[in-house]
Fold these 3 entries.
Entry 1:
Amino acid sequence: MKNRAVIALIATVGGIVGGFVLAELIGILGFLLFGKAVGVKYLPIILPVLGAVVALIFTSIWKPSKAHDK
């Protein structure tokens, strides 16, 4: 259970960082291509939530394989 919380926390932090970076890239590219600011308004909020949900689903489905004895 503690392992799942750590994975969800890492996914949340990664989503925050990724959301800010992706939002800035979209804004820069939109300004260069269209001459005005474009982007997704709540991307840094949406990505951490999405990352945490996907991480929790992935950890509940994925079971580590046990080493086979030879």
Entry 2:
Amino acid sequence: MDRLFGIKFLGLILLLGSFSALEETSARLIFTQEAGVELDTFTIDFGDNSQDFIDLEFGTALGAKITFDTLNDKFLVNKNFDLTDNQALNFRVENLAAAPTCDGTVTGKTYFNTADTNMYVCNGSLWEQLDAVGGGVGVASVFYAYDGTGGQVVDGTEITLNLDTPEVVDPNYSLMADEVTITNAGLYKIHLDSGYTETNTTGGQRTSIEVRLQEDGVDIPGAFSDCYLRETEETSCAMTILHQVAAGGIIRARIQRTGGTTNVETLSDASRLIIERIR
């Protein structure tokens, strides 16, 4: 028995010696001991924080390795990780304040957006929001902005409807100077409401307003609405369309007085633009 133990101990000494004999640029695999008692722990040791990365490589030509990034305090695995139908317990998806790149190299990648508290999945070109729909899991991509200011004077000169307050944000849309840029091509449902008041108080004045939706400065066919006002009255124009939007398409609403000479202004909190991706 003592002889067998001695052989095993000698083998262990030779094993440790082989690791210690590695070049100084390599890590050492050692046993962790406490009070002379061997523990069931291996340590890859090259001095704490002495290098940016510590690698555990599998073979010299396979290119497979597990890396510990000492600067960012995280592990990197450069091959697929197969749980063989087992569960991944007590983990969280990546938390980010803004959407990372979504393209064909990361199809299926998910992240949690800490700004809008929604979860997204990359479909190969577009981040799509994951929402509960009808008791199951569906995909939604919605943007909603409104005019929180009002007071735009509407006359015979065409102007862009003010949309200064985003209400529902989505990584695939951006609002700037009252125009919404849609990052990804697709079929979208676009709904527009716009509210107006006639400020003329002299009596007998009537007028009409025309509202049109444009993509990249060009009228969208069939996307227009007319509304009629009388003295001191309030009214709204509304429309809902389905429209195939090109990648990077810029959507805006144009408004103009088309009849009468009375003063007309937009109402605060009465104009809104809602864009929803259908497919």
Entry 3:
Amino acid sequence: MKYLKAAFDFLVKHWIVLVPVFVATFIPALLIRPTAGNLREVWQEFSLNREYYVANTEALQALITSAKTGTNSGGMFATILNLAAFPMTAGLIKLGLMGENITFNDFTTALSENIVKYLKLIFGGILLGLAVGLVSVIYVIVTFMVTFSGDTLNLFALIGLLLLLILVLAVGAVFFTFWFAAMVLDDLTVMNAIKKSFASVKRCFWTVVGVTLLIQILTNILSSIAGGFSGIPLVGALLSSVVATGSTVLTMAFTFILYRSINNQASLETSDESVIY
């Protein structure tokens, strides 16, 4: 928990780090606009069943939300913004951990220094995903062949072996937690960053798993609450963007701080020096 608290304190002090991801999340959400046809159909439906919708607030909210169906979600715009937001955020967190005073003037530098690293991360992730996918397909095929006995299928053995695959993939994913952190903080190559990530996770496996799950649980709860306002223009998009931004940047800050701490790096800044050691 001390690392999660350190990440939270870090973001409170360096709140400007939240800006890139928030912009990349909030602006595309604002691009969701109901068309004239959608609004006309919704109004006609409400007019014909006015008493029902007045008495049933959940149905009314669902009706209002349906006005967004078929509208422009700004997907391509969101992709472009996220492509810039994540490496920019990583660079800003690095500056904060070095004790620098982060300003809006640092945004361009943070992006330029880390965009290539982020693209390499994406490309490496695609290749890794293809390799893991191929191995998984082969494993599943072999599993079905092994669990078939004559004309019968050993269901328990099949389920057990498939669960084993899921467990291995989940555990394996944890060992890549510090991949990007190692590339940004230590300027390592893709392969060396993977090696460093594996070595680092071995020293804090359960901390990574526990905090990640905790953040995800809190995110799901807050997302459910924010979803209750989805039918209200602007408010729903704002609340959802705040939750998504907080979850994403808090996770990244936690990852960077934990990586820096367990690798005994110097110049780690925190509002309470006893939190990280």
